[in-house]
Specification:
The complex is a heterodimer of chains A (233) and B (176). With 233 residues, chain A is an alpha+beta fold. In chain A, 45% of the residues lie in helices and 22% in strands. In chain A, strand 4 and strand 5 (198-204) form a beta hairpin. In chain A, helix 4 packs across helix 5. The longest helix of chain A is centred in the middle third of the chain and has 21 residues, at 89-109. Chain B has 176 residues and is mainly α. Chain B has one domain (2-76, 95-169): Winged helix-like DNA-binding domain superfamily/Winged helix DNA-binding domain (Arc Repressor Mutant, subunit A, Orthogonal Bundle). Classes of the chains: A alpha+beta (233), B mainly alpha (176). At the A-B interface, helix 1, helix 3, helix 4 and strand 1 of A face helix 1, helix 2, helix 3, helix 6 and helix 7 of B.
Chain lengths: 233, 176
Amino acid sequence: MTCDDRIEQISAMLDGELPPAEMAALTAHIASCADCARALAELGGLRAALAEAVPEEPVSAEFTARIERSLQAVSPPPSSGRVLAFPSSRRRTWLAAASAIAAVLVLALWPHPHDESIDLGGVRDAALRASLTASAAPTGSAIPVPGYQLVADRADVIAGHRAQVLVYTQGVERITLCIWPAGHEPAHAVRQAAYRGMAIRYWNDGTREFWATSPLPARGLGDFVDAVTRRSA
Amino acid sequence: MEDDRAARFRALVVPQLAYLQRMARALTRDRSSAEDLVQESVLRGLRYFDSYRGEDFRAWMAAIMRNLNRERPALQTVTRLEGEEGEDRLAQLPDPAPDPEQRLLADDRAAQLRGLVAALPEAMREIVVLREFGGLSYAQIATALSLPVGTVMSRLARARMQLRAEWTAGDGGCAS
């Protein structure tokens, strides 16, 4: 297989779509191939730039209300059989306001189950990529963590989030920290998880989500998280 | 019952509006056209909801949006380049901007990249939009476009390589 052939795999790796068996072979190759490492970094950068070119935006209440009104127009609620009076302008105004309020309530109350396994997988894959692109250009806004050396700082897209990926070392310990805007996710304290050989601790300070990960057994991950939370508080 | 059918459709479609809106913004020339495309997609989705068999709903709606967009050549973005969103884009600039020059430069680069996506061959552009802005997996894209997963994977890689080459050649550079 040539390096040109591997572009397809690198592209799939960025999307978290590469089977684990192929991932192992590809990461081993990239670790020793400057061209493929550069392709990985550039395609990762391209994805980050695309995420900024058409940024995620919340749906406005007005637009949701417009959609609701158009749906109601083609599928009116069933009447009880009696003829309804044509709505007066005051009633139409009230209906529009009620529709807008209903739309806001639907958006606010609709349960959006947050599938954390997607984020866990994305963070784990980002940590693998981080180990291959340590020389990538820094974003310039890394969090200094006392006692840890910053060895990589780059932009990436993780599970759909425009993320900053930082890699720290302390002795033999290597920790990847991924940070992205919290969006609508509520703040929460540090949680723990293990995913495919990686220990992951993650928290949300109400503004940003933080995902720290290192290979199991992760002896110093807790100390690192304590240092970061003290620093970013 | 009719109201039950519409209620089920609404319950499925409202959580997808943000994805649909973002995909539409990537497929059309401005915010107004994007909102029109989302609205028409939603209405068509309701009309054909009887044919929905419980498959991935976002992929199902993405297929409807893609088909609608193909049917509306006048609204398709073929040469969307910098500045075409005009006042709409200017209105999004923060005021006061911390660094107006940098902000405009970043805005130009974003517009340039959107132009490159818009100029991709349709078969490539659709996959890029569904993946990067719709957040669809390869399997979901394959469902939406009736393609084998392998074709999605290879076509997406080719599209990215083309974008990468043009983006780098245009002095856009890559972020990482």
